[in-house]
Design brief:
Number of domains: 1
GO molecular function: anti-sigma factor antagonist activity
Number of strands: 5
CATH class: Alpha Beta
InterPro entries: Anti-sigma_ant (IPR003658), STAS_dom (IPR002645), STAS_dom_sf (IPR036513)
Distance between the termini: 31 Å
Protein name: Anti-sigma factor antagonist
Structural class: alpha/beta
Shape: globular
Radius of gyration: 13 Å
Pfam families: STAS
Family: Belongs to the anti-sigma-factor antagonist family.
Number of helices: 4
CATH superfamily: STAS domain
Strand content: 35-45%
CATH architecture: 2-Layer Sandwich
Length: 111
């Protein structure tokens, strides 16, 4: 799993590329803590996340909690249909602003 961070118009965009499963989740969680600002706007781009297990969903929950502890507004983009369905069925989707693209995420957070 590779993570990339870039700034787009004052919004931190963190992209995840690879599989987010029980093997990669601990490292991803640690890496995200280092990339995540204490305050501001963040789009988490999952469009290159080819697989996400329940361990990956746990990482998203921890990211949400980290955002809530700080002053971070968070949006998710690139959710695979099966991940979106699981998040919706569990009520988990309601925690996040979910958009179709990074550009929509940047726009949604800066309005």
């Amino acid at each position: 799993m590779r993570l990339r961070k870039e700034l787009r118009g004052g919004v931190t965009v963190i992209s995840l590329d690879g599989r987010l499963d029980s093997e990669t989740a601990p490292g991803v969680q640690q890496d995200l803590q280092g990339l995540f600002p204490e305050d501001g706007l963040v789009v988490l781009d999952l469009s290159e996340t080819r697989y996400m297990s329940s361990a990956g969903l746990r990482v998203l929950l921890l990211v949400y909690r980290q955002a809530q502890r700080g002053e971070v507004r968070l949006a998710l983009t690139g959710l695979a249909p099966d991940v979106r369905a699981i998040m919706e069925a569990t009520g988990f989707l309601g925690f996040f602003t979910v958009v179709e693209s990074v550009e929509e995420g940047v726009e949604a957070l800066t309005v």
